[in-house]
Each structure stands twice: as structure tokens, then as C-alpha cells.
Amino acid sequence: MYEYIKGEIAYISTEYIVLDHQGIGYQLFMPNPFVMSQKQGQSAQIFIYQHVREDQISLFGFPSMEEKLLFMKLLNVSGIGPKGALAILASGAPEQVIQAIEDENETFLTKFPGVGKKTARQMILDLKGKLQDVVPDYFPNLFADPDRNTFTDKKELEEALLALKALGYSEREVKKLEPTLRKETLTTDEYIKKGLQLMLKLS
């Protein structure tokens, strides 16, 4: 099994890149090949996963080990194959996918191509609490204490929420925004501005 390949990015298409390593061009299917566009013609290290079928051998490439690990975890879910797992990573950042699984957010998961309610539920059943080796760079405290909220308390956010209430927004409206705002790390003023922008979208 290959871990990664270092080489020059020789070609980028909508589905894959070609990585030239010692004169051999490796076709690597990636979630978002165009994220590598600025590195075309330059050397890069791509983490890869080799998928073998009776009639085909394919290489899937990822810019980080975390994306590769999440891809492999998704392959363990019944109903998700390599193309489906790639589509999920292409449509959402790894941290968003992980958070949705941990929060049992089926509505968010069903937004991904090819993921219906049954598959979303299966993802949660199979992966919730089992993504510790993927999580560290994204949510280092996600599994530290199961009795705590998945996000740490933020003084700046609490101040911003109070300010939004002072501006006339109801407790219910502010509570609706809180989960989204907790995903950000901002100053009090930035939280308030972000909250006001979200309020306008909801109105």
C-alpha cells in the first residue's frame, strides 16, 4: 500500500491530477483537483489511497493525511464507495463532515451528492465517536469530555450573544444562531457583525 508520492504536478483536470514522479505520470483522483492549480509545474507531496477492483486499479490523492483518513473511514460505511466518498470530501470540508457526524446532523449530511437519509444515518451509526485519528488537527478537544459541548466556551461569543439580545433579537432567534457562531473564532465585534449578517439572511 502506498502512503504518499512526491513529484511534479504535470496536469490538472476536473476529476484528477497527474503527478510526475521520476518520469512516470500517476493519475490521482482528488476531491477538488483545482486546489492544486497554483502548484502546477511545482513539486508536491500527495497522500494516496489505492483502490483495487477486479477490473480496475485506481489511485486517489489527498493534500493532507486527515483527508485521506476520513476518505478511508467513509469507505467503511455501507452504501458509500470511492466516488461517493470523494464527492462528500469535494462538497464539504473534513471538519464540517466530522462535526455533522458527531452532532448526528442528518440534514447536513443529506446535502452531499448521493447521500440520502438511510446513508446519512448509516454514517452516524458507523462513524460517530470513531474519528479520533482524523480529528486532532481540526477539533483537538472534540473527544476530550463527552459531557461537554463539542466546542469550548468562548467569552467573546457570550458577549456578542448578549449584545444581539440588547439590539432587540429574541432569545429564540439568538439561540438559533449560536451553533453556527460557535464554529468561528472571532472577536466580540466580529461575532456581532457575523450574527447580524446571519439574522438578515434568516429574515
Automatic annotation (TrEMBL):
Keyword DNA damage: yes
Pfam families reported in the protein's UniProt record: HHH_5, RuvA_C, RuvA_N
Compartmental location: Cytoplasm
Top-level taxonomic group: Bacteria
Any GO CC annotation of this UniProt entry: Holliday junction helicase complex
Example GO BP: DNA repair
Keywords, in A-Z order: ATP-binding, Cytoplasm, DNA damage, DNA recombination, DNA repair, DNA-binding, Helicase, Hydrolase, Nucleotide-binding
Helix-hairpin-helix DNA-binding motif class domain sequence ranges: 72-91, 107-126
Residue ranges the record marks as coiled coil: none
Molecular function GO labels: ATP binding; four-way junction DNA binding; four-way junction helicase activity
Region (Domain III) residue spans: 152-203
Family that this chain belongs to: Belongs to the RuvA family.
Chain's role: The RuvA-RuvB-RuvC complex processes Holliday junction (HJ) DNA during genetic recombination and DNA repair, while the RuvA-RuvB complex plays an important role in the rescue of blocked DNA replication forks via replication fork reversal (RFR). RuvA specifically binds to HJ cruciform DNA, conferring on it an open structure. The RuvB hexamer acts as an ATP-dependent pump, pulling dsDNA into and through the RuvAB complex. HJ branch migration allows RuvC to scan DNA until it finds its consensus sequence, where it cleaves and resolves the cruciform DNA.
Record's comment describing the protein's domains: Has three domains with a flexible linker between the domains II and III and assumes an 'L' shape. Domain III is highly mobile and contacts RuvB.
SUBUNIT field: Homotetramer. Forms an RuvA(8)-RuvB(12)-Holliday junction (HJ) complex. HJ DNA is sandwiched between 2 RuvA tetramers; dsDNA enters through RuvA and exits via RuvB. An RuvB hexamer assembles on each DNA strand where it exits the tetramer. Each RuvB hexamer is contacted by two RuvA subunits (via domain III) on 2 adjacent RuvB subunits; this complex drives branch migration. In the full resolvosome a probable DNA-RuvA(4)-RuvB(12)-RuvC(2) complex forms which resolves the HJ.
The protein, known as: Holliday junction branch migration complex subunit RuvA
